[in-house]
Write a structure and sequence with these properties.
Helix content: 40-55%
Order of helices and strands: HHH
Largest sheet: none
Strand content: under 5%
Distance between the termini: 31 Å
Radius of gyration: 14 Å
Length: about 90
């Protein structure tokens, strides 16, 4: 982050063997988006994303294999999105 610009990215290791398989944890990418909206002043959106991510992981129903589940990347992402939307409607 600088005085006028900021960059947000999912900072984690590379896993080229899983490219295109729709099976790895999307949390790093999702939370980088949450930090971006925080930077833009939308803390209520950040809070909803973090809470939804935490809820999905703790429930364990829609988590990917690399954190102990069998959901796809898309299923985990969709679960986080749905919960975040519910939290933002309150």
């Amino acid at each position: 982050m600088g005085d006028r610009f900021a960059m947000f990215e999912a900072a984690h290791g590379s896993a080229p063997s899983f490219k295109g398989l729709n099976k790895v944890n999307p949390t790093a990418a999702i939370l980088s988006g949450a930090w971006m909206v925080e930077y833009l002043g939308e803390t209520h959106i950040r809070d909803a994303i973090f809470a939804a991510t935490d809820q999905v992981i703790n429930e364990g129903k829609y988590v990917t294999f690399d954190i102990g589940g069998n959901a796809t990347t898309t299923q985990m992402t969709d679960a986080i999105i749905e919960i975040a939307k519910q939290k933002l409607r309150k």
